[in-house]
Amino acid sequence: MLNVTNLSHNFGSYWALKNCSFSLKKGEFLLLTGSSGAGKTTLLRLLYASLPVMRGKVNVAGYDLKNLPARQIPNLRRSVSVVFQDFKILPYRTVYQNVAMALEVRGLNQIHIDRRVRAVVRGLGLEPRINTLCGELSGGEQQRVAVARSVVVNPKILLADEPTGNLDEELAARMMGIFKQFHMHGTTVVLATHSSELVRMHPEARQLRLEHGKIVAANWRGAQIFSEKIKEVHS
Ligand SMILES: Nc1ncnc2c1ncn2[C@@H]1O[C@H](COP(=O)(O)OP(=O)(O)O)[C@@H](O)[C@H]1O
Ligand SMILES: [Mg+2]
C-alpha cells in the first residue's frame, strides 16, 4: 500500500530526509515520531505529492510518485486523505459545509452526503457545532473538523500531521479512537506526532522514529534503520 525506498529530500543545502526506507501493508497503523524539525511533515508531504520526489522511490496506493504526471494527482488524492497541521479549513463556511465539500466534489448524491457528514460529525463530538462557521470554533474544534473532512471520504490511506496537537487528553483519545476505527475497516493510517504519550498508549501500532531526517528506530521489520543501512553498505 505504501513503499518508500531510499527517500531523501533537501531544501537547498539542508537535507530534511536522508535515505529513508519503509513499507506498510494495507490496514497498518503507523505512528511517525520525532521531535520538531525531524522531518515528519516533509515525509507526509512527499507521500501526498505536495513535494516532488527527487531522490529515492515512493509508491502510494499503487501510484509511483516519482513519475506521477500532474494530471494524476487528483486521482492519487482520491485514495489518500490528509489532515494538515494547519487544518486548511474554510473559516466562512460552517462545519457541515466544510465536511460535505469533500464529498460534493466527488459527485455523490445529497442524501448519501448528508448521512455520511452527520455520522462523522457526530463521531467527533461536533454535532452541537454543525451549523457554526468554522472561523468561530476553537483550535481543537477546528482540528476535529479537519479530521472529519479527511475521514468522511473513506480514504485508502489517511495521513495526519499532529492531529491531536491542540486537544485535551479526552478529545485526543476520542480522535485516536476514530483513527483506529478507520484502521479497523482497512484504511492504512500514518499519524505524525511528537507526543511520546501517544506512543506509549498505542504499543500495538507500527512505530518509526525520525531524527534529523533519518530513521533511527522502528518496531517492525518493514523499516530500515539508518545506522544498519550504513553498516550494510560498509560490510
Ligand atoms: N519549505 C521548506 N523550506 C526550507 N526548509 C524546510 C521547509 N520545510 C521544512 N524545512 C526544514 O526541514 C526540516 C524538517 O521539517 P519538518 O518536516 O517540518 O519537521 P517536523 O514536521 O518533524 O517538525 C526542518 O529543519 C525545517 O526547517
Ligand atoms: Mg511538522
Notes on the protein architecture:
α3 (about 95-105) packs across α4 and α3 packs parallel to α5. By secondary structure, the protein is of the alpha/beta class. The protein has a single domain (about 1-90, about 155-235), classed as P-loop containing nucleotide triphosphate hydrolases (Rossmann fold, 3-Layer(aba) Sandwich), CATH 3.40.50.300. The strands form 2 sheets. Strands 6-7-8-3-9-10 form a 6-stranded mixed β-sheet, sandwiched between helices. It has a 5-stranded antiparallel β-sheet with strand order 5-4-1-2-11. A hairpin with a 2-residue loop joins β1 (about 1-10) and β2. The protein contains 8 helices and 11 strands. The longest helix has 16 residues, at about 170-185. It has helices at about 40-45, 75-80, 95-105, 110-125, 140-150, 170-185, 195-200, 225-235, and strands spanning about 1-10, 15-25, 30-35, 55-60, 65, 80-85, 155-160, 190-195, 205-210, 215-220, 225. It is globular, with a radius of gyration of 18 Å. It is a peripheral membrane protein. One of its GO terms (molecular function) is ATP binding. It comes from Halodesulfovibrio spirochaetisodalis. Homodimer. Forms a membrane-associated complex with FtsX. Belongs to the ABC transporter superfamily.
